[in-house]
Specification:
Keywords: ATP-binding, Cell membrane, Membrane, Nucleotide-binding, Transport. By secondary structure, the chain is α/β, with parallel strands linked by helices. The protein contains 13 helices and twelve strands. The chain has two domains: 264 residues, P-loop containing nucleotide triphosphate hydrolases (Rossmann fold), CATH 3.40.50; 74 residues, no CATH class. An eight-stranded mixed beta sheet has the order 6-7-8-3-9-10-12-11, sandwiched between helices. The protein has a four-stranded antiparallel beta sheet with strand order 2-1-4-5, with helices on one face. Helix 8 runs parallel beside helix 9. The structure holds adenosine-5'-diphosphate (ADP), iron/sulfur cluster (SF4) and magnesium ion (MG).
């Protein structure tokens, strides 16, 4: 990629490549409205890895699909999503098509469903290159070999003519990453990219993502419910709960001094003696609220041991955990009574919730 294009796509150093502001997404059917995302904001800087974590059903994938402009027509979207300074919310589909793949790309949990079983992997990578970059068949093939090499596929010159079913799950995910980065996007969204893979294969995929960031400067949104992956791969973490952002911090701050009771609950089971082996999000007592409404209150209150009448009377803003000092601007939380930096956690209590959780919202799934 030339310097000029790099500048135009990635902007000046320090400026976010992706900026999400007050994003809301709801799905309306004849019988109900699901408020899947409610007021999520984050920035992603060049070459940065931002992990997005939270229980199943908290809106991680819907947020990602909104950024990609891939939500179904039943979705109503509010707020702003800017990539390289361009607004994507409300942009015509034609413009989104140009941006997708070129400036921003996504990989999913299950690579087999995203690959075409009847085309060789070389054809599939090559098609992206020919469509977006106008390469000839021969040029596209050469570049495809380079890309397979970049994502760590051994003997790429011979494997390029293989079909997806001839590859292992880990190799297929590498192919998906090669397709995603074919046009050198400034932003890569990886939605649970290692969840379907076993642990040793996962490590290889994370290494590929790290090397992309180092070699190409790709900024990555890494959606995961594996806290081990967060600790290994992320620079910064955004914690979501029931469609809202509840805490955001540099990864070391989050693991050392989480301030939001929900984050404390997530990390507690992992950090407790004997809990080191638990990498997945643990279960927190109580039920995730229904998303039929987004109340003007803290939605974590029914599960929170620190909840009081303030928490049920108004929605906490998402802001610095130490607004007075300004020393912790990068650490933000949405809580009326956040933990202090050195304060020990008390035990989360389970208060019966009024709404049963739907199966897709079971904790830690
Ligand atoms: N197309 C859709 N129509 C209606 N509801 C949806 C749709 N896609 C997702 N949802 C709902 O939005 C909520 C958030 O889902 P999702 O973002 O997939 O969660 P996760 O954090 O597990 O990725 C869930 O309650 C889910 O059922
Ligand atoms: S706002 Fe209140 S209920 Fe919500 S997490 Fe903070 S202390 Fe708990
Ligand atoms: Mg998901």
């Amino acid at each position: 990629m030339t310097e000029t294009v790099l500048e135009s796509v990635r902007g000046r150093v320090g400026e976010p490549v992706l900026s999400v502001r007050d994003l809301s997404v709801s799905f309306r059917s004849d019988t109900r409205t699901v408020h899947a995302v409610d007021g999520v904001s984050y920035d992603l800087h060049p070459g940065e890895v931002l992990a997005v974590v939270g229980e199943s059903g908290c809106g991680k994938s819907v947020t990602s699909m909104a950024v990609m402009g891939l939500l179904p027509p039943t979705a109503r979207i509010g707020g702003s999503i800017r990539v390289g300074g361009r607004e994507l919310v409300g942009a015509p589909e034609k413009e989104l098509q140009k941006i997708r793949g070129k400036d921003i790309a996504m990989i999913f949990q299950e690579p087999m469903t995203s690959l075409n079983p009847v085309l060789t992997i070389g054809r599939q990578i090559g098609e992206v290159l020919r469509r977006h970059q106008g390469l000839s068949r021969k040029e596209a093939r050469e570049r495809s070999v380079d890309l397979l090499d970049l994502v760590g596929i051994p003997a790429p010159r011979s494997r390029i003519d293989e079909y997806p079913h001839q590859l292992s799950g880990g190799m297929r995910q590498r192919v998906m990453i090669a397709i995603a980065v074919a046009c050198d996007p400034s932003v890569l969204i990886a939605d649970e990219p290692t969840t379907a893979l076993d642990v040793t294969v996962q490590a290889g995929i994370l290494e590929v993502l790290q090397s992309l960031r180092e070699r190409l400067g790709t900024a990555i949104v890494l959606v995961t419910h594996d806290l081990g992956v967060v600790a290994d791969a992320a620079d910064r973490v955004l914690v979501m709960y029931a469609g809202r952002s509840v805490e955001e911090a540099p990864v070391h701050d989050l693991f050392a001094t989480a301030r939001h009771p929900y984050t404390r609950g997530l990390l507690g089971a992992v950090l407790r003696p004997g809990g080191e082996g638990k990498r997945r999000l643990p279960e927190i007592p109580g039920l995730v609220p229904s998303l039929d409404s987004q109340p003007d209150a803290c939605t974590f209150a029914p599960r929170c041991s620190r909840a009081d009448e303030t928490c049920t009377a108004g929605r906490p803003g998402f802001g610095s955990v130490d607004p007075g000092t300004g020393t912790d601007a990068a650490h933000r939380a949405a809580c009326w009574h956040p933990y202090g930096a050195g304060e020990a956690s008390d035990i989360l209590t389970a208060t019966p919730a009024t709404e049963p959780a739907r199966p897709d919202q079971e904790a830690g799934k």
